[in-house]
Amino acid sequence: MAEDASSSVPLRKRPEFWFYGSASMAYGIKDNAFSYILLTFANQFLGVPGYLASAALAIAIIWDGLTDPLLGHWSDKTTHRLGRRHPFMYASLLILPASFYALFNPLTEARGEDAFLYVLILSLLIRTGTTLFEVPSTALLPDLEKNYDQRNRWLALRHFFGWTGGNGLHTINMNFWVGGFGFAAATGYIIYGTVGAVIIALAIIASALGTQRVAARMAPPNENFKISQIGREFRQIIESLKNRNFAALFLYSLFVAAALGLGTALYLYNVRFFFEFTGPEIAITGLAILVAPLAAYLLAPRFGFRFGKKATAISMQLVRVVLYPIPYICVLQGFWPALGSTASIAIYTVFIFIEVTVGIMSAVMLDSMMADIVEDSEKQTNRRSEGLFFAARSFAGKFVSASGIIGAGVIVSLVGFDTITNVADFTDAHRLHFAILFLPAYCLLCFAGIACISLYRIDRQAHEENLRILEERNAGRPDSSTDLGTANN
C-alpha cells in the first residue's frame, strides 16, 4: 500500500500530508461564499426576493446531494493510470473556478425575480465542480493513513486550511471589498469573485499534482464501475450504507447541517442588523476565526488521543451549542454592551473564537470517525467505499442544509428584510422577532445531532481489530500493491 512506503517518514516531512490538507482551501472558499455571501448577494444586490434566493440555493444543494453518493461510488471503483480519484479532481478544474467567477461577475443585466434563473444555474455548476473535486480528494485519506490517531492530524490540517482559506478571504472581503464598497454595490462582489476563482484554481492544481504520485501507487479496486449495470451499482451503494456506524454519523449530519445551513445563511443579517457591526468590525471577528483553526489544529489530535474521538466530538459540540445563543439573549435582556461599542465587538469576538475552535475540533473527530468506517465496512462487504461514505455524509449535510437555507430565506421575509436595507430601519421589535424565529430552531437541531453521535461504536480497539481481520484476509490474496500506473499501461 502507498502508506507503507512512507510509514517511517515523519508526517510533517511527507509532501502529500500538506497537499492533502491544502486541498480544502478550494472548498473553504466556495463554502464560505455560499454560506455567508450568496444569499445577501442575491437578495441585496441582484434584488432576488429572499424566498426565491433561498430556493435557488436549496435546489442546487439537493442536486449536489443526489450526485455526491454516485460520484463517490464511481471514484471508489475507477481504474486509471492517474489513480481512482484524480481524473475527477482534474475535471473539476474545468468547471469550478470559471463558474465561481461568473456568479459574482454577472453575465446578465437581469435583476429581481428575473435573476433567479441565473443564480440557480451558476449555483448548480459550482456545486457540480465542487463535488468533482472535494469528494475524491477527501476520500484519499483512508488509503494515505491507517493509524487511528494519525488520521486526526491529517484531518486537523485539512480543516485548518479550509477554514483559513475561506475565512481569510472573507475577512479581507468584509474589510475592503463588499464591506468597503457596500453590500448593494457591484465592485466588491466582482473583486471577491475574481480573487476567489483564482485561489480555487491554484488550490485544485497544487493539491492534485502534489498527491498524484502517491495516488497512482495505491491498490486498484477489486472491480470497476459499470454504467451498463447501474442497478447493481446502486444495490452495492445501499449495501455499504447499511453500516450502523455510518448511520449514526449520517443522522448527525442531517440535523446539524440543517442548523448550520440556517445559521450561516443568516450570518450577515445577524452581525449587520442584530449586533449592528460595520464591515470592518465584521472583519475583526474574521481575524478571530483565522486564529481558531490553528488552535483547533493543535488541540484536536491531543484531545482525540486523550479522550477518544467520540467523547471529544460530543463534548465539543455541547460547548458550542451552549455558547451560541448567549450573546443574543444578553442583547435582548439588556446585559450586552452598547451595540457598536468596542466592548461589544470584543466580547462577541471572544465568543466566536471559542465557538469556532470547538466546532472545528468536533468536525475533525467526526471526519476521522468516518474514515474509520471504511475498514469496518470492508470487513463486511469486501469493498473499500471511502468515496461513497464521505460523499453520502456530504449528501446528508448538503441535502438537509437546503432546509436550513430555505428556513433562512423564510425568516428574512417574515422579519421584513426584503424592505430593510439599512440598520436604522431595524427596530427592537424586528430584533426580538428574529431571535424567536431563529434561536430555538438552531439549538434544537444541534442537540438532536449530538444525540445521534452516541450511536457510533468504533473506538481505537475496534479499529485495530478491523485492521487485523483485513490483514489476515488479504494475506492469502495475490499482491494487491501493484503500481496502478503500470497496471493500466
Give the key terms.
76% helix; globular; disordered C terminus; 22 helices; Growth Hormone, Chain: A; disordered N terminus; mainly alpha; 489 residues
What does this structure look like?
This protein is mostly helical and 489 residues long. The protein has a single domain (19-220, 238-477), classed as Up-down Bundle (Growth Hormone, Chain: A). The protein contains 22 helices and no strands. The chain has helices at 15-22, 24-45, 50-76, 86-92, 96-104, 116-138, 141-144, 150-176, 178-181, 186-210, 212-216, 230-241, 244-265, 267-274, 279-307, 309-323, 326-333, 342-381, 386-415, 428-453, 460-475, 484-487. The protein starts with 14 loop residues before the first helix and ends with a helix. The model is unreliable at 1-6 and 480-489 (pLDDT under 50).
What is the topology?
Blueprint lengths: L14 H8 L1 H22 L4 H27 L9 H7 L3 H9 L11 H23 L2 H4 L5 H27 L1 H4 L4 H25 L1 H5 L13 H12 L2 H22 L1 H8 L4 H29 L1 H15 L2 H8 L8 H40 L4 H30 L12 H26 L6 H16 L8 H4 L2
Helix pairs in contact: 1-8, 1-10, 2-3, 2-6, 2-8, 2-10, 3-6, 3-19, 4-6, 5-6, 5-10, 6-19, 8-15, 8-18, 13-19, 13-20, 15-16, 15-18, 16-18, 16-20, 18-21
